[in-house]
Design goal:
The protein is 28% helix and 25% strand. It has a five-stranded mixed beta sheet with strand order 1-2-3-4-5. The N and C termini lie far apart (38 Å). The chain has 132 residues and is α+β, with helices and mostly antiparallel strands. The chain has four helices and five strands, in the order βααβββαβα.
């Protein structure tokens, strides 16, 4: 298996929804319009491909100077534990540069993953939750 990474090959929203369902990433998957808006308004999307199959995605919103919010990191179950998530994070970091912090909100099932790939847990964050 040869995984290729792309900054300019944006998948269709149906491919994204299928990947997120497979990876069990909790997003509004039944709302195609909202999912499309999420992608349309992101300014850093990195994809991972196994041939024509979308196997991973990193979706971020960044100002390119101070902060980068890594909004989504998803890897297909069949391709997990192969370094794809780590590579997507590394490429995100390289693209935004070392002067930008990369921050994220973790799903509960990934709380133990992020420290393993270099993230530091923060106790100083706050959130105004969305209405679903």
């Amino acid at each position: 298996m040869r995984i290729t990474y792309s900054f300019d090959k944006t998948p269709g929203i149906d491919q994204v929804i299928e990947l997120y369902e497979n990876a069990e990433l909790p997003r509004p998957l039944s709302d195609r319009e909202r999912m499309q808006k999420m992608y349309d308004n992101s300014n850093l999307i990195i994809t991972a491909w196994d041939g024509d199959l979308l196997v991973g995605v990193s979706r971020s919103i960044t100002d390119w100077a101070w902060s980068c919010y890594l909004a989504d990191l998803a890897v297909r179950k069949s391709h997990q534990k192969e370094g794809i998530g780590r590579a997507l994070i590394k490429l995100t970091r390289e693209r935004v540069g070392e002067q930008s912090m990369v921050l994220l909100l973790s799903v509960p099932t990934a709380l133990e993953y992020y420290p393993k790939v270099g993230f530091t847990k923060q106790e100083s964050s706050f959130i105004l939750n969305r209405k679903e």
